[in-house]
Amino acid sequence: MTDRAREIFDSVRGEGRKFVMEPEAKAILGSYGVGVTNDVLCRTPEEAIEAARRIGYPVVMKIVSPQIVHKSEYGAVRLRIMSDQEVTAAFSETVSSSRRKIDGLDVRGVIVSETASGQEMIIGSMRDPQFGQMVMFGLGGVNVEIFKDVAYRLAPLEEVDAIEMIAELKGKKLLEGFRGRERVDVRVLTSVLMAVSRLLADFDDIEEMDLNPVFGNERGVKVADARIILR
Fold this sequence. Notes:
Blueprint: H1 3-14, E1 19-20, H2 22-31, E2 39-42, H3 45-55, E3 59-64, E4 77-81, H4 84-101, E5 109-114, E6 119-128, E7 132-139, H5 142-145, E8 150-154, H6 159-167, H7 186-202, E9 206-217, E10 220-223, E11 226-230
Antiparallel strand pairs: 1-11, 2-5, 3-4, 3-5, 6-7, 6-9, 7-8, 9-10, 9-11
Helix pairs in contact: 1-2, 3-4, 6-7
């Protein structure tokens, strides 16, 4: 159990929340050694422009609010932002579109994030009423939405469990560099699955976790978006 994770979970509980916001969730994952995208939480358009220049275009922008669990449903995500002018517009649009849908919206800021690349994947967890925490891994995009190409194991995982989860996917060749695609570092991916398992073992009050999308390539694995729900 990391001190940083305990601190964040205590803070969330102290506010009476069950939803762990994206910056909090990524900080927790980072404390367990999981790679996450380079993000900056900004509270003004000027801060967002500075962050985007530092990160490097193109960037992604997303609203941060304890009231918004699924950001895309509120028009609160903007992809491939290419300039300072687009940053200013995206900052205003994400906040205003969300406020139109939720009265009295509590906006904590807007994330400016690097645009990650590689094979899209999904990692998550859910609580089985009988057996407890289950870790889920699958290929992202249409592979999970249409083909449901995912694998499950009970937590906590042994290394062999993580390796088997990766190997049993129907689309596993996509991780191996199929037809010229960049391969995914399976060693790092295995360590990420193990880290998620340790997090679940340390905090039994996690009801659900959704790391989606996760991008993998030869240089490693990065979580681009993260959501945690507490019991």
